[in-house]
Every structure is written in C-alpha cells, then in structure tokens.
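Internal ticket - ligand job 340, UFG:
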Amino acid sequence: MSILVTGGAGYIGSHTVLELLEKGEKVVVFDNLVNSCEESLNRVQKLTGKSLKFYEADMLDRTAMDKIFDENPDITAVIHFAGLKAVGESVAKPIEYYYNNICGTLVLIEAMKAHNCKNIIFSSSATVYGIPETPCITELFPKGQCSNPYGWTKSMIEQILTDIQTSDPEWNVVLLRYFNPIGAHKSGEIGEDPQGIPNNLVPYIAQVAVGRREHLNIYGNDYNTPDGTGVRDYIHVVDLALGHIKSLDKLNEMNGGVKTYNLGTGKGYSVLDVLHAYEKACGKELPYVIAPRRPGDIDGFYSDPSLAKEELGWQAQYDIDEMCRDSWNWQSKNPHGYKG
Ligand code: NAD
Ligand code: UFG
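stdout (structure tokens):
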C-alpha cells in the first residue's frame, strides 16, 4: 500500500512525507517544483534512512498522473498539497491560480477515479471561513466570502470534493482547514523556503533575524485585539504533519463520506507576541516599523480544535516558543534556504 503525496517537496508536504516514512508507510511523491526543490526530499530520506519514489510531474498533465497510478497500483490514498498559495499573487494572477489549483485538482481526481482510488485528504485553509462572526472558529461556522482568489480555490475545491462524494458514495474525503503553519523539523534540515520576499509573518521575521531583511513591517497596530496587532492561531508544522497521519487512519475507518477538521492549537497570538517569541529564540532584538494595514487582513481568529481531538485523537503539542525555536534553528542553519 502506498500513499501518494502531491506537492510533497513543499513546506508542509516534506514534513508530512517525513512522518509517513517514520511510520513505515510506502510513499510516492509528485511535484512540479514550481515552489520547491528536490533537495527537501533528499534530506527527508537522509533523516529517516528510508526512501521514497519521486516524480517531477505537473498535476495538470493527465498522462503524467495516469503514469504515476499505472506504475504504482498499490496507491490507496492521496494527500493533496499541490497548489499555488501566495495570497497577493493570486489577486494579481487569478487565472493562473484558478487554472492551476482547480483544473489541476480536477485532473488529479479524474486520474484517481480511473484507477479506482477514492480516498483523499485535502489541504484546505481557515481562509474559507471568510470573516468569522466570533474569533474562535468551529467547523460548524458557515463558509464565508474569501478576500482573494487563492482562498476561493480552497473553498471551491472543498465543494468539488463534496459534490464528487455525493455522486459516488464510495469516496472518502477529509478536508483539513489549516490555521497558520510555522516552524520546522527539529533537525533544522527541512523548513519553509519562500522564494522572493516572504508573504507570511514568521518567514519574514526569520529573514530579519538572519540579516537578510532590515526590519519587520507590522501591518497595522489599530486592530481590535489586546495590543492592536493581528491575532492568529500559529501551529507547528510537525503537529500539522501528524494531523495528516491521524487523518489517514480516519480515512481507513470511514465508510464513505466527507469529514472536515480545523487543525490549529486553539490559541491566538498577536504579531508582537510572535516577534517577541522569535527574539527569545534567536537571542537578539529584532527591528520593526508599524506600517499601514494590509488589504484583506482581519483582527484576529483562532481555531476550536476540539473536533480533531475527539474524532482524530489529534492535538497540537508544540507552543509558540518551540515553533520559533525550530524556525530559527532551520533559518540559522540554512540562511538562504535549500540553496545554503
Ligand atoms: P508549498 O508551496 O511549499 O507546497 C506546495 C507544493 O505544490 C510546491 O512544492 C509546489 O511546487 C507544488 N505545486 C504547485 N502547483 C503544482 C502543480 N500544478 N503540479 C505539481 N505540483 C505543484 O506550500 P505549503 O505551505 O507546503 O502548502 C501546502 C498546501 O497547504 C497548499 O495547498 C496550501 O495552499 C495549503 N495551505 C498552506 C498554508 C500555509 O500557510 N502554508 C495554509 C493553509 C493551507
Ligand atoms: N503580518 C505582518 N507583517 C508581515 C506579514 C504578516 O504584520 O510581514 C501580519 C498580518 O497582518 C497578520 C499576521 O501577521 O496579522 C499573519 O499574517 P500571515 O500572512 O503570516 O498569515 P495570514 O493569517 O494572513 O494567512 C495565512 C496564509 C493563508 C491562509 C491563512 C489561514 O497565508 O494562505 O493563513 O489562516 F489562508
């Protein structure tokens, strides 16, 4: 039995592949390397002492998808990470985002169906809730208006997978709504390696800490939060990876259906909280300036992760200090990411 991991060379994918291999699973990965490099997977194999099968392939390429399933008839489930994920870029390039994420997923699902593989875990996002009515979000909250095309691709793919399951009850679908993944594997060998200027808070702080950027821009300090800066639910990427392992167990016991889970810690931290935790981790003060609000940002939200605890037996273990410690360990060992 093999697990197919799409986008497995990326940030969350590589950490999940590592945990799958540690658990003794056979793993097949494909990635077109548009936002990653194969080195992450080389390191995962070195760290675990186990090997995986890698295809450099694009999910839009039906022939390539068929080849992967033909050559690996023991694939029983797919963990689907592949996609473009930069919020700002998606506003500038909506066609590329809808085409890659949605058409790519449709091609993948057609290939799965043709090979009778009907088990999928999908990387969704808390962004599908839009602006929540209250900051503590449960899965019962309605989906909302997304503020950008990237978010809509997540919302639409959730709907597509749900509709497919309705049409064919043999499908087992787990939708995982991630909150804000940060941190890195404790070895410091794999981590987040954004190309160009980081869009997200912690990779940006990490580059300030390592001397690649002058200061952090804090996007607004007049939000309705305790210190005025935005509050989010940051989750250690290893905890997130382990959430996928538990979700695989869930897929195996499901008898057709769609399950949706929030993956977060249940705690909210402000931008300043995270900055101060990072300063503690790297042992120095980090410069920042207060900049205007970023369009589309909201005050604060965090998960209610109790359903995942109840039904998956999963709960985040790492706190914000450990997340920043592991991020800094990766960043200081690899100041320029996988390039050195
Ligand atoms: P990532 O960019 O590191 O990983 C995504 C991978 O998909 C990359 O390796 C990229 O090369 C690959 N890819 C993109 N388009 C492809 C295509 N057409 N064919 C094959 N491979 C393709 O991103 P990540 O942070 O690891 O995120 C993984 C998934 O989780 C994404 O779907 C993302 O939208 C989702 N997600 C991420 C976050 C976050 O903050 N990191 C939050 C919520 C959801
Ligand atoms: N922020 C700054 N400066 C920066 C970057 C971010 O002050 O340089 C602030 C933001 O204004 C926000 C907080 O830090 O208050 C977190 O911002 P991120 O960009 O790190 O994360 P977001 O919550 O905006 O979005 C992330 C992913 C989305 C995903 C969402 C899910 O980028 O893809 O989490 O909750 F949908």
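Auto-summary: The chain is about 40% helix and 20% strand. The first helix runs from residue 11 to 22.
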